[in-house]
Design a protein that fits this description.
four-stranded antiparallel sheet; 0% helix; mainly beta
Length: 119
């Protein structure tokens, strides 16, 4: 049984920072991508960043320069450090796992329950 649990969301003023965490359990892939997505009610879920268990990271254009994805493989945990937050970053943030590098939400294999970020 795969479970992804996010934490770290909250309310912050514009220009502030937040660090999201997502811990996975029950995964059986030998290697995989963990990614962050976000969604505003009424909009499609949007890819933010992904990282491979080997360490290579990928970012959506809107995240480059402000967000940093990292991981602790020993703890099956991925982090999203978000700096210089803007009101338009307000969304529910979800982590997801996929054995391949896909940025499309429908391609992800597993999802967490989400954590709200309000700027």
């Amino acid at each position: 049984h795969v479970q992804l649990v996010e934490s770290g969301g909250g309310s912050v003023q514009a220009g502030g920072s937040l660090r999201l965490s997502c811990t996975a359990s029950g995964l059986t892939y030998s290697s995989y991508y963990m990614g962050w997505f976000r969604q505003v009610p009424g909009n499609e879920r949007e890819w933010v960043a992904s990282i491979h268990t080997g360490g290579r990271a990928y970012y959506a254009e809107h995240a480059k320069g402000r967000f940093t994805i990292s991981q602790d493989n020993a703890k099956n945990t991925v982090f999203l450090q978000m700096n210089s937050l803007k009101p338009e970053d307000t969304a529910m943030y979800y982590c997801a796992v996929c054995p391949f590098y896909y940025t499309a939400p429908q391609r992800q294999s597993y999802w967490g329950q989400g954590t709200q970020v309000t700027v």
